[in-house]
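Design a sequence for this backbone.
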C-alpha cells in the first residue's frame, strides 16, 4: 500500500517546539523555510538552494541567519535519514570582509577627552575606564565595587570578559583615573554592588551607557576607545602577547590586527601633518 511522505517542515518545527524553542524563533524558522513546505524529500535540496538564493540581495546578517536556518534543517534531514547529504554543504557561508579595527584620530580624541573631563564623576569614571583600560562596554556595565583593589600596594581591577575569562589589569596610582576611582567609590557608601549605578538604584544598563557615550562622542563608539588604546599599546611595546592579555582576546590572531592598524594610523597621522 502506498504511504504518502510526511510534511518534513511540520515534523521539524514540532520537534523544535517540543525542545523548548520560543514562538518567535519558530516563526522566524517557518518564514525562512516556507519554500520547503509540502515538498517531497527528493525536491527539498533544490527548494533549499532556491530559498537561499531568494535572499541574495539581503544584508550580510540576514543572509547568515537564513544560511544557519537552512543548514540546521539540512542537518536534521540528514540525521533523520530523509536525505543522504545536507544541501547547504555545497554553498559557502557568507562572511564579512576582514576589516582592521578603526581608531580615533588624535585631534578627535583631544576633544572627547575635554568633554569627559567636564562630566560628573560617575560618567567621568565610566568613560575613563573604557578609554584607559580598553574595556568592552559590557565589561564596564558588569563591574562591581569589589572588582577593584585600590588599597593594595599595586592597585588593580578584576575584569570578567567574554566566556567568563577573568583578567587582572593594574591601575597606576599616578593617574587621574586612580584618584577619581578612590573618590567615586568612597562616596558610593557601599563596598559590594554595581560600580555604575542608575538613578533608580540598580545597575546602569548597557543601552544607557551607549546613549550617554553618544552625547559625549557623537559618531564614535565605546569600542573605538578600545581600538585606540590597543593601537597605542602595540605601537609602544611591539608586544602583541602583552596586548592580547590586556584586551582579553582568546586568539592572538585577533590582537595581531592592530599591527596593521598602527601602520594605517601612522599613514593617517603623517597625512594629517602634511596637510596641516
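Sequence:
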Amino acid at each position: 500500500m502506498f504511504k504518502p511522505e510526511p510534511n518534513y517542515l511540520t515534523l521539524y518545527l514540532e520537534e523544535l517546539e517540543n525542545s523548548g524553542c520560543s514562538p518567535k524563533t519558530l516563526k522566524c524558522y517557518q518564514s525562512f523555510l516556507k519554500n520547503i513546505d509540502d515538498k517531497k524529500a527528493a525536491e527539498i535540496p533544490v527548494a533549499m538552494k532556491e530559498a537561499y538564493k531568494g535572499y541574495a540581495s539581503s544584508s550580510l546578517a540576514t543572509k547568515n541567519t537564513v544560511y544557519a536556518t537552512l543548514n540546521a534543517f539540512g542537518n536534521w534531514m540528514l540525521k533523520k535519514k530523509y536525505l543522504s547529504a545536507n544541501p547547504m554543504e555545497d554553498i559557502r557561508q557568507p562572511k564579512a570582509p576582514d576589516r582592521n579595527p578603526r581608531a580615533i584620530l588624535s585631534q578627535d580624541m583631544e576633544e572627547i577627552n575635554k568633554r569627559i573631563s567636564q562630566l560628573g564623576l560617575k560618567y567621568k569614571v565610566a568613560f575613563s575606564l573604557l578609554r584607559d583600560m580598553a574595556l568592552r562596554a559590557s565589561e564596564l556595565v558588569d563591574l562591581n565595587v569589589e572588582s577593584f583593589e585600590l588599597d593594595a600596594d599595586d592597585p588593580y581591577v578584576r575584569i570578567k570578559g567574554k566566556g567568563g575569562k577573568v583578567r587582572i589589569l593594574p591601575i597606576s596610582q599616578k593617574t587621574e583615573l586612580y584618584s577619581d576611582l578612590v573618590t567615586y567609590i568612597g562616596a558610593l557608601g557601599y563596598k559590594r554592588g554595581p560600580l555604575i549605578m542608575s538613578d533608580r538604584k540598580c545597575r546602569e544598563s548597557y543601552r544607557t551607557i551607549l546613549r550617554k557615550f553618544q552625547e559625549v562622542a557623537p559618531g564614535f563608539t565605546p569600542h573605538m576607545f578600545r581600538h585606540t588604546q590597543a593601537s597605542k599599546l602595540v605601537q609602544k611595546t611591539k608586544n602583541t602577547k602583552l596586548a592580547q592579555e590586556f584586551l582579553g582576546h582568546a586568539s592572538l590572531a585577533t590582537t595581531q590586527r592592530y599591527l596593521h592598524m598602527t601602520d594605517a594610523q601612522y599613514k593617517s597621522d603623517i597625512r594629517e601633518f602634511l596637510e596641516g
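The mean pLDDT is 84.
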